[in-house]
C-alpha cells in the first residue's frame, strides 16, 4: 500500500463514519449530518426519540438502511457481497463498480464497548484507495492487494457492500 494524500477524505467525528464514507465515495461533501438524520427519520416513521437507524442529537452511528437510501438518491446502488463467495479480480474490474464499503466490529476500552465502523475502498485512477476516517491517511492499493484485503476481511465477520452505478428503487 502507498500513501495517497490527493484523495478526498474526512477525519472521524463522533460516530459519523457512515457520513464520511458516503462523502469519500462521492469525493466531495455530498451529504451532511442533517440530511442523513432526515433519512433516518423518514425510515423510522411513527417513532419519537428512539430511532433504530441512527443515534439521536446528530451523533451518527448510521445503519445500512440510511446509507442505502443516500446512495440511491444520488444514482448509486449498494449491493451486499455474499460472504460465502471470494472477491474476484473480475468483480473489482467491473466498469459499474465505483467502490466497496466495509462495515466491521470495533472494540474500545479493552473490549468493554463494541460498535460497528464504516470505511471504504474507492476505485480511482486505476487503483483502489482505502479511505478510513479513523486513520490519519488514505492508502493506495492495487487490484490484487484490494482483492486479498477484502478476502481476508470477509473471513472476520465483516459486511462488504459493492457500490455500483445504477439506480434502484429504495423506500424512503
UniProtKB/TrEMBL annotation:
Enzyme nomenclature, EC number: 3.4.19.12
Swiss-Prot/TrEMBL catalytic activity: Thiol-dependent hydrolysis of ester, thioester, amide, peptide and isopeptide bonds formed by the C-terminal Gly of ubiquitin (a 76-residue protein attached to proteins as an intracellular targeting signal)
Source taxon at top rank: Eukaryota
GO biological process, one term: protein deubiquitination
Keyword Cytoplasm belongs to the record: no
Class of the enzyme per the UniProt entry, highest EC level: hydrolase
Catalytic-site annotation from UniProt: 17, 117, 132
Signal peptide residue numbers: none
GO molecular function: cysteine-type deubiquitinase activity
PANTHER family according to UniProt: JOSEPHIN 1, 2 (PTHR13291), JOSEPHIN-LIKE PROTEIN (PTHR13291:SF0)
Name of the featured protein: ubiquitinyl hydrolase 1
Organism: Rhodosorus marinus
Organism classification: Eukaryota, Rhodophyta, Stylonematophyceae, Stylonematales, Stylonemataceae
Amino acid at each position: 500500500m502507498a500513501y495517497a494524500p490527493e484523495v478526498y477524505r474526512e477525519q472521524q467525528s463522533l460516530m459519523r463514519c457512515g457520513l464520511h464514507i458516503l462523502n469519500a465515495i462521492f469525493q466531495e461533501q455530498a451529504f451532511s449530518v442533517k440530511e442523513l438524520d432526515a433519512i433516518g427519520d423518514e425510515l423510522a416513521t411513527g417513532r419519537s426519540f428512539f430511532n433504530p437507524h441512527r443515534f439521536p442529537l446528530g451523533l451518527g452511528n448510521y445503519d445500512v438502511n440510511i446509507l442505502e437510501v443516500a446512495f440511491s438518491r444520488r444514482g448509486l446502488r449498494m449491493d451486499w457481497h455474499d460472504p460465502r463467495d471470494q472477491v474476484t479480480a473480475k468483480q473489482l474490474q467491473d466498469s459499474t463498480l465505483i467502490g466497496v464499503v466495509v462495515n466491521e466490529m470495533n472494540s474500545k476500552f479493552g473490549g468493554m464497548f463494541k460498535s460497528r465502523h464504516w470505511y471504504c475502498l474507492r476505485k480511482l485512477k486505476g487503483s483502489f484507495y482505502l479511505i478510513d476516517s479513523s486513520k490519519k491517511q488514505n492508502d493506495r492499493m492495487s487490484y490484487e492487494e484490494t482483492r486479498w484485503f477484502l478476502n481476508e476481511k470477509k473471513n472476520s465477520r465483516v459486511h462488504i457492500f459493492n457500490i455500483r452505478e445504477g439506480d434502484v428503487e429504495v423506500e424512503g
